[in-house]
Amino acid sequence: MEQETKHPITLEDIEKNKQVHTYIEQGNEILGVIGYTEHGFPHAKRSANYASNILKSLGYSERTCELAAIAGYMHDIGNVVNRVAHAQSGALMAFTLLTNMGMDPFEIAQVVSAIGNHDEGTAAAVNPIAAALILSDKGDVRRTRVRDKERIPVDIHDRVNYAVERAALDIHPEKKTAVLSIDIDTKLCPVMDYFEIFLTRMVLCRSAAQYLGLSFELVINGVRLL
């Protein structure tokens, strides 16, 4: 049964929701078992903050920025079901959760569309929230996402993430650019390894930036590569 609410659902409401908390926590544990990098609360919070800030810097309304933060925080809850098609299962889970919390149906549609369209292979920048989520999610590359240091020499995903010393996504509204700047320790992995596993994601970021009226640039160790 739907619960009435006297105020719009906020990111704080989502963070306090026991179901959301449990699904993020358990989904992250499941991915750890099968060898994926961290997809827990640090990633959820970064994705929420980055998605909101991207739209804020482009002049979107406060409420749209809040919805982007909600989508960013919830986007990986489908991992509790399975990594395969986690974007779609996560969107369906978010639909039920947000409906039960009393969110406006139009806002639910915006959030679940973004969640359902964030994973490469099936992703598309279908609305501003989805575009911001794609950029924030794919831009979260950092060594603290690596769980098992012993896997670094043999696993290219762990090696690339661990080699990243700094990553920042900067939006420049006046230049109409979205710039992902990354510093990689090439003693740990060559730049080509980054492209081997992340090229599809970077192409997706370019598409998302274009939806927002921006050009996407990738700068690695001070050299523009896209």
List the helices and strands and how they pair.
Layout: H1 11-16, H2 18-33, H3 41-57, H4 62-74, H5 86-101, H6 105-116, H7 128-138, H8 156-163, E1 164-172, E2 177-184, H9 191-211, E3 215-220, E4 223-224
Helix pairs in contact: 3-4, 3-7, 4-6, 4-7, 5-6, 6-7, 7-9
Write a structural description:
The structure is a single chain. By secondary structure, the chain is of the alpha+beta class. Helices cover 53% and strands 11% of the residues. Strands 1-2-3-4 form a 4-stranded mixed beta sheet. The N and C termini lie far apart (49 Å).
Oligomer: single chain
Strand order of the largest sheet: 1-2-3-4
What is the rounded Rg?
17 Å
What share of residues are in beta strands? 5-15%
What spatial form do the alpha-carbon principal axes imply? Answer: globular
User: Helical region count?
Assistant: 9
Order of helices and strands: HHHHHHHHEEHEE
Number of β-strand runs? 4
What fraction, in percent, of the residue positions are helical? 40-55%
The largest sheet, given as strand count, sense and whether it forms a barrel, is: 4 strands, mixed
Amino-to-carboxy terminus distance: 49 Å
What structural class results from the helix and strand content? alpha+beta
Low-confidence region ranges: none
Mean pLDDT across the residues is: 96
